[in-house]
Each structure stands twice: as structure tokens, then as C-alpha cells.
Amino acid sequence: MGSLTMLTNVLTKLLNIEYPIIQAPMAGGVTTSKLVASVSNAGGLGMIGAGYMTPTQMREQIRELKQLTSNSFGINLFVPNEFEVNEDEIRSSNQIMNSFRDELDLPRKENIEVPNFNSVYETFMEQIQVVIEERIPICTFTFGIPSADVIEELKKHNIILMGTATTLREAVANEKAGMDIVVVQGSEAGGHRGNFIDKDQESLVGLMSLIPQVVDNIGVPVVAAGGIMDGRGLMASICLGAKGVQMGTAFLTCIESGAHQVHKEAILNVEGDTTVLTRAFSGKWARGIKNSFISEMQAHQNNLPSFPVQNTLTQDIRKKSGEQHNAEFMSLWSGQSAALAKSQSVETLIQNIIEEAKRLKNN
Amino acid sequence: MGSLTMLTNVLTKLLNIEYPIIQAPMAGGVTTSKLVASVSNAGGLGMIGAGYMTPTQMREQIRELKQLTSNSFGINLFVPNEFEVNEDEIRSSNQIMNSFRDELDLPRKENIEVPNFNSVYETFMEQIQVVIEERIPICTFTFGIPSADVIEELKKHNIILMGTATTLREAVANEKAGMDIVVVQGSEAGGHRGNFIDKDQESLVGLMSLIPQVVDNIGVPVVAAGGIMDGRGLMASICLGAKGVQMGTAFLTCIESGAHQVHKEAILNVEGDTTVLTRAFSGKWARGIKNSFISEMQAHQNNLPSFPVQNTLTQDIRKKSGEQHNAEFMSLWSGQSAALAKSQSVETLIQNIIEEAKRLKNN
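The joint structure predicted for all components is written out below.
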């Protein structure tokens, strides 16, 4: 087989990996140590999606991972965005949630303890400390850019920083703030939208447009994310100017992933593209496979509490739905390429990507 | 320079062109004979956007074009979708339009003569007759699939048929109906959305997802459209499985294009991606650069008459705005890659695409 020198580049060197393939840091139980270690051991970059983790959970998983791989792996954190806790909004959302709780035989709730911004921010700062203390080589961010102090502190410890952007403007802001790498999240991407400057609609840019615009305007390596599932997507991203790819849905359905079996099956059995954007689960827009919860919440979408308040309000519903193997009330995050997902091992996925990339290169 | 055999394929053979580059059939005055002939003469496929043309205008342009090029060119028609003429909706839209008319020193209007479905359908059938009589080798469709009778008639005359799809389901429907080629319009695309089965939101699929899903499921050649501006986009589309590309915005800002100078400048001077989807201009969703008209109409968006009724209602406003060189009330259609547009000749654009594609191939 021909050599594929374009796949060994500034990105693979920075991240100290063999192939320019990053496993997207899917939060909420998907990125088990098994998944992350398999990716890193197969030559990609495994990532812990630590957004919802306590510092203690983070430390435990990091230590577990160090036993499972001697290769690089990274960790992703959610940059806290200011939010208000509005009692009226919470009450009215809770009332809607109670109808779902009835359907799922869950106790109704009147009051729910929700986080406030200060506590979320404090946790974030503790997470940063764990990253430093555990000498994680790569730390990535979603939902914004950390403060200059945090960035300086991480850089002092030689941690490679990677930010997320959904538009050119956001990519430029990431580079300016000192990020070493910028992940551009196309409108194709599953899960939460990472936009933090541009508004929701204007931040839905397809990768065919987003990648070349960004690489023409920033100097640091760009990683493409959204709808990339195989060697075709990797090579297309590289043609457009990206140095590598970050893949979520493709890893989510892998055997090693910790995603719920119902979630995996919903993706594997999808017919065509049937994903939609919703903020009903968390208060933040995210892409997933349409189910009853999304449909029934459509009408209420613009009057819900912000992230992460709404996320806390739906927690028992998502959990119970999972326990019942009921796909209708779970957040079935998926990118627009669900139809291309396969149930396979991480090693097979990565090897197939590389083989296909080589075939395309030699065509 | 290395050979680029992947650019000579079943598509270039079917269309009898040198390069797999199709100029998108932008309706409304953009596809002047100068533009179309320049594209065909430079080795691509020039296309007349005849959607809004009378049969007589079509025939005149075809005859003019035959003097300007001996190469293949094609023509695009809008497949009529049934619509209702609702007097109340028209009156209420007209009231809103009157405030814009005031701003533009246009006479207020109380009643406007709008087309009805029968007249639109009759015109379409006459357009089909012109295509046959003038022996146009390639006929393409947007907004749906013509009836089996129309398809049979065109095929009897050996006309190559190309349909437009925004989702896998729509692509499959096009192939089933007998289309020889399917254009997949990604969410990146400028101008009108071509969805005709899937609903608006669900039909916004990025090319990174749309191309591979479609090529895995249909047998006829697939052409990618949306956000493609240069050799990077062409090679990315080919990596994803398309046989060629259809480019609108890239040709719109060419020197030979008939687009209004104000429209060209709005695209050339855009900062980052600032396109939005609106149905305010025509009653059908379309992507363009945000201006006052779009912003002010946002609130009314869901109560407007259907296409093409609303299009008729805004005609005087768009026209007068153009006459005044006022960008704020024109439909500034553009794809999400506006930032990559250049003012150049068609030949330079096409030559640069091919050079860049070769460089990428030999990297």
C-alpha cells in the first residue's frame, strides 16, 4: 500500500498519536475507560468526556486509564456559561416533566435542587486542578473559552489545549486565546452544539463551508467534527484543509463504548437522516434522533430553563427511560450520518478508516 | 502535472463535458448567456436557470446560447408544487409589504394579481415542450420530480435528466423516477431549498453526511451542491463519493454572471458566515445574506403565502431595491461559503479548481 504521509502531520505530532483520528469526548457515560483506551491503543486519541463528572470521578477514570494504555489520551471539559436560576421557569418546566414522569411511573416532583453558576464554576476550577495534577497531556474545551488565567496555568504545565468552534468568528477567538488546536464542529455533528459567540441558527455551518473558511484564517491546526464516519470523511476533511478529524457517533456505536444499548440500536437502525435539533433535554441545542420526548417538547422549546438547569430537570426521566429500555425519553444524540454507523470494535473502525483513506489516495 | 483520471468519469461522459463542474442554475437573471456559455466553453456545464422564465424567454436564450457555444449546456426547471391562493394571507402579507414600499418610495398596493396552480403548471408543460423542440441535451429539476409522463417524453428524446434531493429519501425517489443523475443539495447551499418530501428542518443535511449516505444507496451518479467554491471542495466531494459538483455562489460573483452588482458585493464583502434561512422573499425557504428585509420579516415568517405567491408579492420591492443599489431589500442569495467567493472570470475559476484538485491529488 502507498504511503499516506498527509496523515502524519503537525496534529499527530502535537498530540503524539499515529493517526489523525480523535474520539469525540461524549459526556454522560459513553467514554468509558474501555472505549478511551481502545482508541488510544489503536493509534487514535481517546478522550474522556468529563463535562458532567465530579473531580473525584475524573481522577478515578484517569488513574484507571493509565493502567489500560501508555499512549496519549485527553480530557474534555465544559466551560461554564453564566446562567440564571429562574424559579418560575423551573416550576413550569417541572410541570411538563411531571407528565413524562407519570408515563414512566416516576414520582412527580415539585421542587428540584438545581446547580447555580457559582457551584458549576467551582467544580470547573477543581476539574482544571485534576487535569494539572494528573499530568493529562491534552485538555479540550466545549461551550466557550476558559479565562486567560486558566489557559496560562495549563500552558505552564505544557498541556496541549484544544478549543471548539462552530463558526469562523469562534475559531479566530479560540486561536487568539491561545488554543493550540481548534476543533470545528459542523452542523452535521451530534450532541450539544458548541456555539458560544454566534447565535444558534447562524452557528449551523456545514463542514464543506466551515473547514476551508477557518483554515484560510487561522494558523493553528484545525480538526473537523460532524458527520465523519469513515475514510471518505477523513480524506474529505483533509482535502478541505483540516489536519484530522474528531468522530463521535462512529465511536458511540462501537462495542467498547459505554452508550446504552438502546441508544446504539437507535442509531444502528435509523432510516436515512432523521436527526433533529432540540433543547428539550438540557436547555442547550443538541442533535439527536427524534423520539416522543423531542416531539412532545417541541411546543415548549423556547420557554425552558437554560443549560444545565433543564438537564438536571430531565435527569430522572432519561435515567428511568434507560432502565426501561425505552428509547422514547432518552437523549439519543447522533450526528447526521447515523445511517453510516456500524457495530464493530474500535480497532476495526480505525483500521478500516486508514485502509479506505489509502485506497482513496491511490485512486 | 499528474493525471487526474478520477475527474473523468461516468458523469463527464453522460454530460459530455471535460470537467465535472456544473454551474448551478440560479434563476432570476444570474444565468445570462454570457455566464452559461463561458462555463460550457471552459469545460464545465453551463446551465440556464429557467424557473421563472416564460417559454418565449427560454427559447430566446437557448437560441442565443447556441451561437455562443458548441459545447453542452443544460436547463433547469421548477417542478410546480400545488399551492392555495388564500386572499386573507395575501392581504395581510401585502399590508406588511406596504411598509417596505413606503421606505422605497413605491406605490402601496391593495390587490396583486398572483398566479394560480393551473397557470403555473401550464407554463411548466410549455417549458418542457421548448426543451424538447430545442433539443436541449440536459434538463434538470428542482422542487420535486415531474410526472412519469413528462419523464418518459423527455427520455424518448434522449434528454439526460438530473433531479435535486436534499435527503437520502429524496435521492432514492429521484432514482426510482428515472433520473439519470441526482444532485444532492447540502444545507450549505445558497438560494432556495430543494426539499420536496422531507420537512424543512429535517432536510438540512450537511454534505459531509449527505453525500456518502446517498452514494451508498443509489446507483446513478451523484453531484454535490452546497458551499463548494474551489478545488478543495471538488476533491472533498469526490472523496465522499460524488462524481462532480454543482456550484452556485462561486459562479454568481464571476465577472460574466448577471447577478446585480450589489448582490456580488454583498457576497464578496461578507465577514465570516452570516447567511440565514428565510422564507420572507418567496414563501419558500432559501439561504441568503442577512439584511433589513430578512430581519424585519422574521416575526411574520410563518404566516406568509406559499411559493410562488409571496415571490410575486415581493417582486416590486426587490426590483426597486436593486434600482436604488440598496442591498437591504434584495434577495442576496448565497451559500455558507460566501467568504471564499472571488471576483474573477469563469475561466480563471475553473482553471484554478482543476489546478488545486491536481495539487491535492499529488500531495
